Amino acid sequence: xxxxxxxxxxxxxxxxxxxxxxxxxxxxxxxxxxxxxxxxxxxxxxxxxxxxxxxxxxxxxxxxxxxxxxxxxxxxxxxxxxxxxxxxxxxxxxxxxxxxxxxxxxxxxxxxxxxxxxxxxxxxxxxxxxxxxxxxxxxxx
Length: 141
Hints:
By secondary structure, the chain is α/β, with parallel strands linked by helices. The protein has 2 domains: 2-34, no CATH class; 65-133, Nucleotidyltransferase, domain 5. The chain has helices at residues 19-35, 86-94, 112-124, and strands at 2-5, 12-15, 65-68, 74-76, 79-81, 101-106, 129-133. The strands form 2 sheets. It has a 5-stranded mixed beta sheet, covered by helices on one side. Strands 1-2 form a two-stranded antiparallel ribbon. β4 (74-76) and β5 (79-81) form a beta hairpin.
């Protein structure tokens, strides 16, 4: 602590001297840097491996996926269907379900008009939530 004498008022005025505190902090920082072990740089990461087999994954029976193929064919959970009976099949599937949601997956070069047509039929069959899937995605358990 420092002390000033004099001034306009008689008496002592105390002023803190922080220079020794800064010196102590610098010594502690340098000691911590020297004593700490070096950390390895980077993270351990596992690279994703390609699937070992090219078989299709099983679909959860609670999930309904309708696929619109390039040749105009339709698949409901990998079972063939056609445009004429699509609404009836979907109505039978969803009439006793409380979860009225399904997925639509179009093949790579299918025009969106075909997918929109399928979605319209799905809405007519009572499906409330329709989600679009890209060709590379799949539904897993």
